[in-house]
Amino acid sequence: MQSPEPSGARPTSRDVARAAGVSQATVSLVLGEKWRGRVSERTAESVRLAARELGYRPNLAARNLRLGRTRTAMLVVPALTNEFFAHVHTGAALAAARHGFGVVLYPSPDGVGPARDPFASAQAALDGVIASSMAADALKALRGTGLPLVMLDSDPSDPGASAHLNLDVADGMRRVTGHLLELGHRRFLHLASAVPSWTFDVRAAALAEALRGTELRTVRSPLNVADAWEAADLAFGAPGPRPTAVICDDDILAVGVLKAARRRGLRVPEELSVTGFDDLALATAVEPELTTVRLPAEEFGRRGMEALLAVLAGEPAPPVTLPVSLVRRGSTGPAPAV
Amino acid sequence: MQSPEPSGARPTSRDVARAAGVSQATVSLVLGEKWRGRVSERTAESVRLAARELGYRPNLAARNLRLGRTRTAMLVVPALTNEFFAHVHTGAALAAARHGFGVVLYPSPDGVGPARDPFASAQAALDGVIASSMAADALKALRGTGLPLVMLDSDPSDPGASAHLNLDVADGMRRVTGHLLELGHRRFLHLASAVPSWTFDVRAAALAEALRGTELRTVRSPLNVADAWEAADLAFGAPGPRPTAVICDDDILAVGVLKAARRRGLRVPEELSVTGFDDLALATAVEPELTTVRLPAEEFGRRGMEALLAVLAGEPAPPVTLPVSLVRRGSTGPAPAV
DNA sequence: ACGCCGAGGTTTTACGTATAACGTCCGGAG
DNA sequence: CTCCGGACGTTATACGTAAAACCTCGGCGT
């Protein structure tokens, strides 16, 4: 009763047709919801019944071949273990599902070498790609595939993408500096991401512009706590007056700074202010909680998918920049008296 | 020179055949690497050349249809934004890529309602499924599809799965209790996950067994910091003597406990010991760092995929339980004197 | 001289679906 | 009575690939 067709093979639309006493074409019409006026209600019902009885599930490979499209998009990000990208994926996957699309991930998380042909190893045939500019190696593999491409966090003047979607990180940095300047800070350290990406260049430029006339040093670190800790510790030990505020490209880096500060006995925020970027779960897990720039990560993924859908539908997809906001928390305070 | 065939349509194996002056079958033989003795080296080379010139990429949908398999597996987890599952995905995706497989994710992250038919909305046709028992709603949708199924964190005696893979969480809890008992603790609070899953039942049972003869209360909370904070705060405010150690089902819950403790002025570990589970990045981000049970998350994903591959190859896939380890850090210390 | 075999291909077929093109029957207008 | 057009289906075809079955030819053993 549960499994009416225990015979190994999966039932096809032809099996359903046979069971319902109609032709395969009729089955396709009925199950494809395009039969108003072409098939009688009685027949349609019997087809639906037979399909249910047999547990019929259409063969996606066959459908995709026939239709020449797959309703599948690939999301290319550097690492899902970075919570930000997990949120981006969530947004993209939900928007996709809403339109009957699926999402597959680029098969090389964490920068571990991809298969020789990543687009073959993500076996799903693709209708389009959404890619973060942070996944540099993957982008090379994308050249040559004529697939529609939505770029995230990349220079909007770059052609070669079908659409561009960005976060207003320059504004984010301006809000951070505005906040810190108002608190009296004049000596800054910028703990920047060592990953090359347009988005980090933009942040650095915005910082340099906003902090013109103050003291600003820059140090780079990979996106993990241990390296950030080390980089910050090195900077704190450097000769000359210590910065009173550390501006980080990412919450993860900021957590490393917090650890370095604590180990040196530097009190945050009394002696040192620290800011993050992204507003991940980390930001409120640590003590003090991080002042940071909140990025609409899930919306970012959602809009990226929507842009891709627009491109696929032949509609225009103008470049978009999403606003960000500053979240003031305990890790920033008035600059210490000189 | 870069794009030798600017004509809109993607080249097919027949186009390559025409360009190389051979038949389509020969192209398939050569590119399929199964031509030793069937095609001359000269011909093979000319085929490869033509393919490169045209930028030929095989149509996956057609191949999948022909071969009746897709080399694609679906991973079903509750939420990628839980770092643990992001690691599981990484492990599974890497193992998959090593065997020319792709991985797609169940299209309903975060428990947001799935599409009416999640397996249609993840458009990729599937060869098999790897599912965490924590994704309860998804599991229902799995009933009826005759797909090979590898269950993670689920009762090994449950039939209906092609293979079982578990983490030795009972041992993990025994190590936690051993550590705490040795430190002199006798009054415990178990902050348990409110998500129903076999793995949490096992942990609770192991705790009850190991802490027989001591004082043990249990409180449940969803897996996020805010709820855990509230649950812990409520427990701390309850009448009667306060527990001296809180054992959490997850690092996220433990972070919530840390926050509740700090807000009440309870010093950790001097007045209260706290343990987590998973050893996520969170565990070392907070202060004090969490004593926790390290789970081999990435290996878990890798082994899950390998088990699925074994099942698909017709090989036996006996149930496996992976060992875990205790990581002692600053959040646990000697029980305070009564 | 003849058959056989292996090398080096080609022709053909099937996978399961969606849909364009094509009947068939029946009731009503002319 | 004839003819026409819906209503209701059916037949036929194409999508691109992999691989089984088949063909051709030259050389070699007997």
What can be said about this structure in brief?
Chain A has 338 residues and is of the alpha/beta class. Helices cover 41% and strands 16% of the residues of chain A.
Structure description:
The structure is a homodimer of 338-residue chains. With 338 residues, chain A is an alpha/beta fold. The first copy, chain A, has three domains: 13-58, 434 Repressor (Amino-terminal Domain) (Orthogonal Bundle), CATH 1.10.260; 70-168 and 297-323, 3-Layer(aba) Sandwich (Rossmann fold), CATH 3.40.50; 169-295, Response regulator (Rossmann fold, 3-Layer(aba) Sandwich), CATH 3.40.50.2300. In chain A, 41% of the residues lie in helices and 16% in strands. Chain A is built from 13 helices and twelve strands. The first copy, chain A, has helices at residues 13-20, 24-31, 41-54, 60-67, 83-98, 118-121, 136-142, 169-182, 198-210, 225-237, 251-263, 281-285, 297-312; strands at residues 72-76, 102-105, 128-132, 149-152, 163-167, 187-193, 215-221, 245-248, 273-275, 292-294, 320-322, 325-327. Chain A has a six-stranded parallel sheet. A four-stranded parallel sheet of chain A has the order 7-6-8-9, sandwiched between helices. A two-stranded antiparallel ribbon of chain A has the order 10-12. The N and C termini of chain A lie far apart (82 Å). The relative contact order of chain A is 0.12. Mean pLDDT of chain A is 90; it is low at 1-6. Chains A and B meet through helix 4, helix 5, strand 2, helix 6 and helix 11 of A and helix 4, helix 5, strand 2, helix 6 and helix 11 of B. Chain B binds a DNA duplex (30 and 30 nucleotides) through residues 12-14, 22-29, 32, 34, 37-40, 43, 58-59, 61-68.
